[in-house]
Amino acid sequence: MASRMMRGKLIACSIGALAATALALSASPASASGTYSGRAYVYGAGAFSNDWNDEGILSTGVNTVSNATCLWQKILWADGNLTSASDIDGVFGSQTKAATKAWQSDWEASPDGVVGEETFGKAGEWLQDTDGDGAVDTYIGAVHSISVSRDDQGRYHFYDGDGNGRIAGYDYRTCS
């Protein structure tokens, strides 16, 4: 009888361990900052023509306050969807959402007000090398152009409203 109870406990423990292992294996690992690439900043490598096809999500609920949002707002301003540079504050609020929907409609992206792979990818089509050195240096907007660059680690940089160079990260906001 004791051997049957011991066997039952061993079977129950084995089933529990297998279930815990299966659950652990089925859970997908969390990406840094909700990015598709798992990186904590706007990233690129190789030819810059498709650098932004796997960027993270920016919205009123994800990466809402960040330097990546600040970069996105600069793009909205460059394309005329935000009318004042003072609207670039790194906070993805209702005004940025409305401007994003307008941008998406203008550029034939799904107008949901969320910046993800499709929207970032379409914006990336306007990255240019204007000085001919082979490196990205400008986002060509419909109204304005903005300076952007990619460092040797693949991180995208931009200048904030005070002229300070910033890295377009998802986890922090230092832009002004």
Q: What does this protein structure show overall?
A:
It is globular, with a radius of gyration of 22 Å. The protein is an alpha+beta fold. It has a 5-stranded antiparallel β-sheet with strand order 1-2-3-4-5, covered by helices on one side. The protein folds into 2 domains: 30 residues; 134 residues, Muramoyl-pentapeptide Carboxypeptidase, domain 1, CATH 1.10.101.10. Strand 3 and strand 4 form a beta hairpin. The N terminus is likely disordered.
What descriptive keywords fit this protein?
176 residues, alpha+beta, Muramoyl-pentapeptide Carboxypeptidase, domain 1, 2 domains, 5-stranded antiparallel β-sheet, 33% helix, 10% strand, globular, disordered N terminus
Structure described in brief:
The chain is an alpha+beta fold and 176 residues long. Helices cover 33% and strands 10% of the residues.
Regions with little confidence, pLDDT below 50 for 5+ residues: 1-32
CATH homology group of the largest domain: PGBD-like superfamily/PGBD
CA-based shape: globular
CATH 2nd-level architecture of the largest domain:
Orthogonal Bundle
Distance between the termini: 74 Å
Q: Please outline the major beta sheet.
A: 5 strands, antiparallel
